[in-house]
Amino acid sequence: MNRIIINTAAGGERISRHIYGHFSEHLGRCIYGGFWVGNDPAAAASIPHTRGIRNDAAAALRKIKIPNLRWPGGCFADEYHWKDGIGPGEERPRMINTHWGGVIEDNSFGTHEFLDLCGQLSDPSGPRCEPYICGNVGSGTVQELSQWVEYCNFDGLSPMTDLRRKNGRDTPWNARFWGVGNESWGCGGNMTPEFYADNFRRYATYVRNYGGAVPYKIACGPNTDDYNWTRVLMEKAGAFMNGLSLHYYTIPGDWERKGSAAAFNEAEWLVTMRKAYFMDELIRGHSAIMDEFDPRRRVGLIVDEWGTWFDVESGTNPGFLYQQNTLRDALVAGIHFNIFNNHAERVFMANIAQTINVLQSVLLTEGPRMILTPTYHVFDMYQVHQDALMLPLHLESESRALGFGSIPVLSASASEDENRRIHISITNIDPVKEQNLKIDPRGCTVSPSVKLSGQIITAEKMGDHNTFEKPGAVKMTDFNGASLVPGGLAVELPPMSVVTVELA
Ligand code: AHR
Predict the structure, then answer these.
(1) Which class would CATH give 2-390?
(2) Distance, CA 95 to ligand 1 centroid (Å)?
């Protein structure tokens, strides 16, 4: 028996739209060949673009209301020196991208191009796609970070604003989100939490407020379940930060053999789901520690890297992290969004890794062609929750046996938007069985005049995915499996499905 009780009168927390954020690193074909064709005359001639940024990618991301974009890394951020990426293209120095494939980075995509990209991703009638810039703490100086902020955000006269104007930009961009290092416990400098906490305080001091956008300073948070990192950071530096990041990837195997992205069996499907559910435990664990030091929940938890990580596709550069994206990824995305929505009290932002051609991408490109992945359609479906009022729910779900434990087959979240429409999103991970669900919305009357509609993402086989030849194999379609019954709704959820039902 599956049941959801929704308290429609108890909404309190807003689901921050930034939960639906993205991450794009100088890694593989995410920026170069993904977003950016400005340094490749052949690509630029055959792919429609605006100032080097692909029009198809920008339009697809505008459609899902991308709220923010994190850049330039990832591990790359801690070896990136932003002044290498400004000024005339031919004068920009080249460097080796030591983390990702040892390829030459020509710095053609830098600060101006990234902020132009964020502008092109913004829907003129809605909130803009906010830049989230990750500063270099591992190999960069306090002065570098401080000048980057000044270059982007100051409107007066100064050496940095002179330089910006010389490079063709008069007004500041007012970038609000600033990361102070990335994975400083690992690729970002192998620091101890105590050393990083002191460094965070020092670097963050010089992330100045120039008036146009009060900086939201994000500290490097823990790797997965390193609760000691969170404790030390909150104790020593909590008062100086606005957000604390968390990185967690869903990997069915281990780091050596992660598993294939598209060729997998039912056992691997279920293990992947169990590992995706683990995000809930992580958020609860880190939030409990944050609550000790920050009971008013001023500091946001910023899950700025999440998603599936599988073995790279054969024949591709192992350093480029290119993987296929199947119905399984759609379920993982739905589970994560339900978890983030339900923790709206603490999770302020999340960023899928990574937008195009890397890890759990929403877009894949091949020359001039581009496809939307199953994960893209989940972002599309869940955009109704952006900035909506979270409705707390109680879920009773059947379980699926897994090794010596079991996992629930359903996950869910609900919200009410500004037009008082209620949206209930549900995932059914059961690989074979349809699940019948009763939804009991308390605190509102579901009269026969209520307009019921819905959308679904599903497919016949768990490894189904979109290809350049068959781009619509997995997509979002109308859902007719919900009906009004006395006391609420009855929903028939097909196996392996992500569904959103609307009550208007
Ligand atoms: O997203 C790929 C990499 O994973 C990032 O560069 C790093 O932060 C993480 O380890």
Answers:
(1) alpha beta
(2) 19
